[in-house]
Amino acid sequence: MQKKFEFTAPSAETAMDAAVQKLHISSDKIYINVLGETAAGVNCEALVDVNLTLEGKKYLEGILKALGIGYQIEARSINGEEQLYYMIDSYENSLLIGVKGKTLEAIQILLRNLIYSYTKEHIIASVDVGGYKNNRAHQLEILATKTAKEVVKTKMPVKLDPMNSYERRIIHEKLADWRDVYTESEGEGENRAIVIKPKN
Description:
alpha+beta, GMP Synthetase, Chain A, domain 3, Ribosomal Protein S8, Chain: A, domain 1, three-stranded antiparallel beta sheet, three-stranded mixed beta sheet, 6 helices
């Protein structure tokens, strides 16, 4: 459900200004529904009227144009707009991905902040560049399997390098069904890392 709120304005003409101040969104994306009149003024409902998939694409295009990077963006939505996926391809993929995917992660955070300014619902918004996430997921699954086998053999826990929550989840899920090992996350913030431990 996209953002909406009810309020009272002195008149129908001033209702839009009040809605813009409250929602921090431009007036062309807000629809005002007048519910009725009272002695205090006009009762109104402000609804955000946007296509989230398209707004996200425009936002990413704005970032890439500002950087002077040629690009192609594929945007798709699943289950209405509960999940939004954006695939970027350019001649500057490595620049957009950054060291250990840090730049890509920052772009995704900016996109999510935009999406959440339009809706109260929990929307999954994901950005990938040149298939980086799929390749990285495959590498992490190989690392998880290899390390788990080592833990089973040595009976000694192994701590992996710090990872973001998305990458840690890949490791957790890969090893969730293993009988001989289990995974725990330790540390805080950027230092949070997975430890693979023997069960017995």
